[in-house]
Amino acid sequence: MSHVDEGTLHAYLDGELPxxxxxxxxxxxxxxxxxxxxLADERALRDRASAVLGRARPLxxxxxxxxxxxxxxxxxxxxxxxxxxxxxxxxLALGVGYLLRSPTREVAxxxxxxxxxxxxxxxxxxxxxxxxxxxxxxxxxxxxxxxRRAAAPxxxxxRTSDKTTPPADVVAAVxxxxxxxxxxxxxxxxxxxDSLQRERLQASRLEGVVVRGAAAPAxxxxxxxxxxxxxxxxxxxxxxxxxxxxxxSVLGEEPVAVPGLAVRSFRRGxxxxxxxxxxxxxxxxxxxxxxxxPARTSLNNSAERGRADHFGRFVxxxxxxxxxxxxxxxxxxxxxxxxxLH
Amino acid sequence: xxxxxxxxxxxxxxxxxxFLYRKVWDQGRAEDLAQEAFxxxxxxxPENARGWLFVVAANxxxxxxxxxxxxxxxxxxxKSEPDAVHSAPEDEIDADTQRTRVRTALDQLTPRDRExxxxxxxxxxxxxxxxxxxxxxxAIGTTLxxxxxxxxxxxxxxxxxxxxxxxx
Lengths: 342, 168
Fold this sequence. Notes:
The complex is a heterodimer.
Chain A (H helix, E strand, L loop, with lengths): L5 H8 L5 H13 L1 H22 L11 H6 L3 H27 L3 H9 L6 H11 L2 H6 L3 H9 L2 H7 L8 H5 L22 H21 L5 H4 L16 E2 L1 H8 L4 E2 L4 E7 L7 E8 L2 E9 L7 H7 L3 E4 L2 E6 L4 H10 L1 E2 L2
Antiparallel strand pairs in A: 1-3, 2-8, 3-4, 4-5, 5-7, 6-7
Helix pairs in contact in A: 1-3, 2-3, 5-7, 5-12, 7-12
Chain B lengths: L1 H23 L2 H18 L4 H23 L4 H4 L10 H18 L3 H11 L4 H8 L3 H31 L1
Helix pairs in contact in B: 1-2, 1-3, 2-3, 5-8, 6-7, 6-8, 7-8
């Protein structure tokens, strides 16, 4: 037998040589000094290569539970969803604006049947559908709406004085119109997870795409980022402040955050499922929120499951999601940076 | 079959992360992409899930590299924070240097040699590597022998180069 080539030696060392070839090779090597030396060389090379590669290994982290994977959406739908959600808020603006300037029959009915914290999205959807397109176009722009919102209820009262007292709530309940104020606003939006309302919301998004071209004002990048809003723990009672030690013990490991950003607070979620949120400041007016919970805990209510639809990632043993009034791109980048706090 | 995929997941996830890590060089991204590959597998239900996952992962890593190059400028937001500079401990710097050296060495392999080596290191058999790369099964041993030799040589050369720089 001629000498064994290096490819065969590597296949042998890798345990990938068919058994017949293997026996032949072993018999040959037993007698051939050259091939014995070659085999020793190749073994050393193989070990060396493994060692080199081993210096560029990722950290060994626990494999997240499989059922979490089912809920991890691809990123693309997220990007698609963003503008749709934004468009839906325009529909809202137009719808509410229309509502306030139209004869007040609907307003009165609305006021009677729905409590103040009711889902405004639904209101807007219905109204937008009822409204003829021409009316939509003349509906107030967001700036105007904002002014109106700030005005005394008396102003609105005068518009609708012939019937029931107009619901200032309807205006106040408009969600996520001003992303920067989002931390204070979106309790109501968090309830969108109710399946009926979600269906309606989807319907409104369809409407929204149509309207957007006519009415959407130019927006800065920061203003556009409203996606975090529905998950903001705005209510200090349901998301109580905790200290870092408690956060660590709730999670069972160090909380994670974006390195280099000041941590403003730690809060504990209402669900008792080990969720906490770390709030960090990007600048004096911008707060981002890093939601995190042990990856192994199951989500036990629909609101939580709704949130799991948001994009997120696993960091160590934690499932981590991010929200904040910056662009999706930036949130993506920030999420990539998240690490356990030292 | 999702049951089978759950098994594949348990057995393959760490290897897939490792495979991806050597392509994107970021742990978080590698984990993200591995999870996304499995999420896609849940939708597509491929017959040979393991092989399919590595193909999809390799494609995603390639897209990722292109995207990362395009989006580099978006990082300015993060870099503007002066506090973001934190000093890494010594051994972390050392690990960083090692990693960079391995990365540089891997870059000097031909794409096919590199792919075969990374797939082998991710626990794939010669048959699987052959299916994945289009190489003949009989050529895998030779390919791996060459890939290993080049990797070690390039790594050692990088180390000497690094020392030269340090001395000079």
